Each structure stands twice: as C-alpha cells, then as structure tokens.
C-alpha cells in the first residue's frame, strides 16, 4: 500500500503506473442467453470474491437502469454483460449468492442491479472502506492510485451507456473498472485491520446488504432545482403539474427528464404564471426551438394548476417527522441548541481522532434527533438505546454513546 489513512508519505511516491489494458484483453459483450449461460457456469466455478460494477445512462435515459454489468472473479476472468440483451441476470445472481461481492460505492449500483436480479447477501464496499480508513479521496481512480499505485483512465464515466454498439474504448474502460477491485479490497482489508476498524466495516457492509429497497420518494416534484424561489401555493401547483407532465413524457420517450424540459424552465413558468402560449414562449426554456404542440402541452399543464380550487393546492414545505432545522433551535429551544453544539463538537473531535468523516462515525440526523429529544435519564445505557432506535450500528453506538452522554449532561448543567 502506497499511503494509509490519508497520511502524507515519508518520501516522494513514484508516479502511478498507467493501467491501459485488461490482463486478458477486452472480453466480448454478452448479449444472448447462450453466452450468458457460459458466463454463469464460469463464475459458478470461480473462486474467491467477485468484483461487480454497473454502468447507467444518467442524464440520457429515463430512470437508473443498468446498461452494462461488469464482473471479475478468479478462475473466471472478466465478463461484460449487456442487460438490454440479457435483462434477467437472476441466474447469475443465484450462483453468486453465497459469494462476497466487491463494489465501489455500492449504494449507487445496488438499485439497478436489483432490477435485473443481482442481489448480494455479502459485500465489501471499497469506497466506504476508504472513508473508514481515513483516505481523503475515495473515488475509484484515487483509491487505485493511492493504494495500489496504478492510474485508471476515467474519461468515459459520464457517457451514454445506452449507446449500441458500445465503442471499444468504453468497453476497455468498463473492464478496467473491475480489473483491480479484488486487489483493492484485499489491501483495504489489511489497512482496516491494522487500524482496528475491520469489524466496524463489516457492520457497515452488512447494513448495506440487508437494507430494503428505498420506498418511492413522496412529492418528488418538490426537489425541482430552484424550488426555493417558489413561495405561493398556486405557483407550487404549477411546478407540480409541469413536473408530472414532464415525467410522463420522459418515461414514454425513455429520455432523461432534463432533456424534455429543464428545472429552470419549470420554475420560471411557475413564477410568471403565463396567460397563454405566446407569453410562455417568451420565458427561458420555452424558446422558438420548441414546437407549437409542445408549448401547448406545457401551457395546458399550467392552466390546470391555475384552475385548481384553493383546497387542492399543495401546502408549502413538506410534512416531516423529527426536529426542526438547527438554525431555528436557539429561538425554539435554547437548551436543545446547547446540547447540539456540545454534541457536534464532541463528534467532530472523535471523528478527527479516528481519521474518518463525521457522517460515517454517526449521521448528523441521528445526533440532531437525540439532542432534540434526549432520553429522560442521561445515562450511557439510555443514550445507547436511543442511538440504536435511530438505526446506529453497534460500533457507532459503542464509540459515540459515552461522548454524547457527556455532552447532553454538560449542556443540562449550564
């Protein structure tokens, strides 16, 4: 390992070695059931953990489906699978069910892998491992360079992976993404063990693997970029109608919603409340390049919002459970604000000693909830129970409960 825990090296590191070609060359893309059956047999006969990655077409296509799946395992080599030609990979998932999967930033890829039948029961997340080990840069390229001394070419990460056929340079890039994941995993496991954090990492990985699929987001239109400018309920209704119409069009055309209509255009229309298509055309995002039919479609959505009775208009803000924004605590509950200030300082100091981001030590939301409604008894045991109830892992509870107990007690005595 070149550097550990993000610490500067004692002397100048050698330049990273460019990794230009996969060891066995670029494998053929698997796009038929017959070829997939051969891959399943090969990976079932392989040994050790399996490196897994997926490429999506974010910004180009609707949704987050996988357009290429890459795998590598000792004894099986590397496979590049086209989920368009092979949309059901549950057979592959089944033969790998008892195998440890190595992913980088697992939570990004697991939803699209789950859609095609690839669901791990055990995993090792090299990005999360890097965070826990204290590396300041945890992207795959940075980790491979800092830990293994190789330079990955990352120029194709944001391309349209729904393109067919996939160009050879893209396939080379995709194969290289899993080329060294097993080596990276092994090196990070040793480093975590050296730092006494390996069991912590295993708890985190188990939590990711066992987490249920995220439920659909409530009122997703509220996340429109620039929404903070929209204050009146009638304007919010316009955002909702335009967002919903755009989403239906994007889904039907299988394109990214932003390519149908920008968030900025939606917000501008909501603020202006145009009376007709002519007024709409004058707004940013609804220029002359847009056809009459499209303009009428958007104006119809705006008119629907304008005609809604007051009782059907959306309410400002989202209903939420839990504490209010911290900026309002000093006015609402000065004692809670003092508890939060003491707790944040304690968590920050411990995270620095452990060389890891504060949010990996304990989520800020958990700290806020415990400080807003602390246990009646300010004991370590009661704080442990509160942290566990909010989803903290055992290692987090062990590390954080004592210092949070002291912070809550100190704030109460001032």
Produce the secondary structure layout:
Elements: E1 17-19, E2 29-30, H1 33-45, E3 47-56, E4 66-74, E5 77-81, H2 90-95, E6 100-103, H3 106-115, E7 122-125, H4 126-133, H5 140-148, E8 150-152, H6 168-179, H7 181-194, H8 198-210, H9 233-253, H10 257-260, H11 263-272, H12 277-281, H13 292-307, H14 329-332, H15 334-354, H16 358-361, H17 364-372, H18 380-389, H19 394-413
Parallel strand pairs: 1-8, 2-5, 3-6, 6-7
Antiparallel strand pairs: 3-4, 4-5
Helix pairs in contact: 4-7, 5-7, 9-11, 9-13, 15-17, 15-19, 18-19
State the gist of this model.
50% of the residues lie in helices and 10% in strands. The chain is α/β, with parallel strands linked by helices and 414 residues long. The protein is flat, with a radius of gyration of 25 Å.
Give an overview of the whole structure.
This protein has 414 residues and is an alpha/beta fold. The chain folds into three domains: 194 residues, 2-Layer Sandwich (Nucleotidyltransferase, domain 5); 93 residues, DNA polymerase, domain 1 (Orthogonal Bundle), CATH 1.10.150.80; 88 residues, HRDC domain (DNA polymerase, domain 1, Orthogonal Bundle), CATH 1.10.150.80. It is built from 19 helices and eight strands. The protein has a six-stranded mixed sheet with strand order 2-5-4-3-6-7, with helices on both faces. A hairpin with a 2-residue loop joins β4 and β5. α18 crosses α19. It starts with 16 loop residues before the first strand and ends with a helix. About 1% of the residues have low confidence. It comes from Streptomyces corynorhini. This is Ribonuclease D. One of its GO terms (molecular function) is nucleotide binding.
